[in-house]
Write a structure and sequence with these properties.
The chain is of the alpha/beta class. The chain is 44% helix and 17% strand. It contains 15 helices and 14 strands. Helix 8 links the parallel strand 7 and strand 8.
Length: 438
């Protein structure tokens, strides 16, 4: 590239932020996974939030992986409301269009540090994993999709490679936007998916037979307890009475703030939870004596978690509640639990990564990422859709998981090891091939 050093770095976009431990775990897991194939000093992470944002992951990533370079986003990507959005959108659009029109000129004239200077030393862009690309009646947000895809569009303009870390894709409901998403995936050097349903949806948009594609586990499966402070931290919120305990993790918020309540009403979801869970938990504890620990993964879930806690305590159920935000704390907690009952995908993954049995509860407006993952893990019998759930059905599932947790743990452990090894082999092979092409 004229006016630039020989590109040598791998750039990962974006580190999503620390509001949700699941989102943050994707970047931490990506670094642990890629660290088995490349020197972490060759990796650049682009944060979704600037360093002055309270939920920015920059400080935490640098602390855990000190040799990784972490840079702020190319433009202001903080969530704003009302009129405050207008200047933010104008600035972002101007910078984005300028970069797409003359990317080499923008990079060549960039100052020291920051995204643009980092781009000049990049040979490969990796889009972080997650539930990023979908287009259906519950949520159609084109600006969001463009913002997510923008670094890949720049890569295409500059003529260097990009790839997709494990994604959940779809559903897609007609129109030109899904075709554009298919075009974006078709231009990738490799694509990877968190579940087979996502792979099938994408192949309905674009032919991937000749592309390097793979079905790989979610990046959060690669979190270990070896990073600083994680394996020495005492988990102080465990029950003091020494009994077995199981965990419950709730979710009532929709796919995004822009989702109409007609499509997904948090109040309706809360009513359904409170009508089912207390009965099942009370009866289960009466039979098995296990303590119930309610785990809050995201602040939005605090109120419904507190309500369930209060109802259970009023019934004399032994229960407690804790809020966590560090992915490694979830791992420490769930490792010792008898099982986890969860609405949240990444709490399920934190548990499954430690071979802890899981009962997954999913909601149709959020898509099928939970049942799809559980099916791929050979655990489809331990998942149910909320609208189809009843207290006796949930109770039976809790009993089954508790009584058969030994064989279930063995099955989980074997599948997790197999899928993680496949992912490590995939990336080692891909990155070795890329090195040969440099």
């Amino acid at each position: 590239m004229i006016g630039m050093k020989v590109p040598e770095k791998i750039m990962i976009v974006y580190a999503w932020g620390r509001r949700n431990a699941g989102d943050h775990a994707l970047m931490l897991g990506a670094l642990e996974l890629l660290g088995s194939s490349v020197d972490l000093s060759d990796i650049i992470v682009v944060a979704r939030h600037s360093a002055d944002d309270p939920i920015s992951p920059i400080t935490d990533i640098k602390k855990r992986f000190p040799t990784v370079s972490v840079v702020a986003p190319p433009f202001d990507m903080a969530k704003r409301k009302g009129l405050a959005k207008i200047p933010q959108l104008i600035e972002a659009m101007a910078k984005a269009l300028a970069a797409l029109a003359c990317p080499r000129l923008v990079v060549a004239n960039a100052g020291d540090g920051g995204f643009w200077r980092a781009l000049g030393s990049t040979r490969l862009i990796l889009l972080n994993g997650g539930n990023l690309f979908f287009w259906h009646k519950v949520r159609r947000n084109l600006p969001r999709l463009i913002a997510l895809a923008w670094p890949l569009l720049v890569a295409r303009r500059m003529g260097f490679a990009y790839g997709m870390l494990p994604q959940t894709c779809g559903p897609f409901e007609g129109g030109i936007v899904p075709k554009w998403i298919g075009w974006l995936f078709a231009g990738a050097r490799f694509v990877s998916f968190r579940d087979k349903d996502s792979l099938d949806r994408l192949t309905s948009l674009v032919h991937l037979a000749e592309k390097r594609s793979a079905l790989l586990p979610d990046l959060a499966f690669f979190l270990s307890t070896k990073t600083e402070n994680s394996n020495e931290k005492k988990v102080s919120f465990l029950p003091e009475h020494g009994n077995d305990f199981f965990c419950v993790c709730l979710r009532i918020d929709p796919l995004g703030d822009d989702v109409d309540k007609k499509m997904d009403d948090p109040e309706r979801t809360e009513r359904k939870i409170i009508s089912i869970f207390p009965n099942a938990i009370e009866k289960f504890q009466a039979e098995h004596g296990t303590h119930c620990l309610i785990v809050v993964q995201v602040d939005h879930d605090h109120d419904v978690s507190q309500k369930l806690h209060d109802v259970l305590r009023q019934r004399g159920v032994s229960c407690s509640q804790v809020s966590l935000n560090d992915p490694y704390d979830f791992i420490e907690l769930y490792r010792d639990a008898c099982f986890l009952l969860s609405f949240r995908l990444h709490s399920m993954i934190f548990a499954l990564g430690q071979a802890t049995p899981v009962i997954g509860i999913w909601r149709k407006p959020l898509g099928t990422k939970i049942p799809s993952m559980m099916k791929d893990m050979n655990l489809a019998e331990y998942v149910m859709e909320l609208d189809e759930a009843e207290d006796e059905k949930l109770l039976d599932c809790m009993k089954q998981v508790y009584q058969q947790r030994g064989p279930i743990q063995k099955c989980i452990r074997e599948i997790v090891v197999q899928r993680k090894n496949a992912a490590i082999s995939f990336f080692k092979g891909f990155l070795a091939a890329e090195d040969d092409n440099v």
